[in-house]
Amino acid sequence: MHPPDTTEPAQPGRAAPQEQVAPAPAGTSTPKPEPGAGEPPLPAVPEGVLDVQTLEVLRRVDPAYPPSSRKRGEEGTAVLLLSVAKGKVQEVAVEKSSGFPRLDEAAAAALRRWLFSPSLTGQVRVPVVFRLE
Length: 133
What we know:
The structure is a single chain. This protein is of the alpha+beta class. The protein has two helices and seven strands. The chain has helices at residues 67-72, 101-111, and strands at residues 16-17, 49-51, 57-59, 76-85, 88-96, 115-116, 122-130. Strands 1, 2, 4, 5 and 7 form a five-stranded mixed beta sheet that branches. 32% of the residues are buried.
């Protein structure tokens, strides 16, 4: 068995999940709990859905910034809902699109690999910010 992947803040060229608080290297977004300038605020977390900021994540996988999205200057925030059973992500759904399907898919692919405490079963909301700098 491999130890949990505790991927730290995004590396250059990667998107950063919004809940991370450590400073990100140059070329990535600086994760913040509030939306970026010019973006509408995120809606309140729906009843029965857990906010990722309140949970222990055993393994985080940062989404890769798709090269074609980087070339086109695509940025945005995708909000995903994870269905989690016994700490493992079972399904991923886009609650709010970033406005770019490639970014939404990159976020979903990474979050499918997340791992939570084995006692967690339920829905978890995760905002992912894609920002070019």
